[in-house]
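Figure 6 in text form: structure in, sequence out.
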């Protein structure tokens, strides 16, 4: 998993995140990267970078939030369990809270749909 945080949601952020993902794990032709239809993900630069890295691009249908249900579910938990519970004074505090929550979500937070395991423990079990 890779993520980047920025005050701007633009092509540069998306490309930096893609580079980070390539550093963190072996990307193969079995890797699928899903996104919405934002301008960043429909740009020629992004299409080329995905193709060069051997990634299969998946994109949600226009105005169909169900295509992104998994990510939307994560964001719902993230906002409820992290962002809405804190008052941030500085950007560094936001970055620290995001880092801490993502670690918690992946390593500690059990999920019923994963047999009451965290995502990391579930992945290790099925691997």
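Output sequence:
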């Amino acid at each position: 998993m890779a993520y980047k945080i920025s005050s701007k949601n633009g092509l540069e952020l998306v490309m930096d995140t893609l580079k980070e993902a390539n550093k963190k794990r072996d990307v193969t032709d079995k890797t699928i990267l899903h996104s919405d239809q934002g301008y960043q993900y429909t740009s020629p630069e992004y299409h080329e970078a995905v193709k060069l890295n051997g990634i299969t691009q998946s994109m949600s249908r226009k105005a169909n939030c169900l295509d992104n249900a998994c990510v939307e579910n994560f964001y719902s938990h993230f906002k409820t369990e992290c962002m809405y519970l804190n008052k941030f004074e500085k950007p560094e505090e936001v970055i620290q809270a995001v880092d801490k929550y993502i670690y918690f979500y992946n390593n500690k937070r059990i999920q019923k749909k994963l047999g009451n395991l965290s995502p990391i423990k579930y992945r290790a079990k099925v691997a």
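Caption detail: Helices lie at 11-24, 39-42, 44-52, 69-81, 91-107, 119-126.
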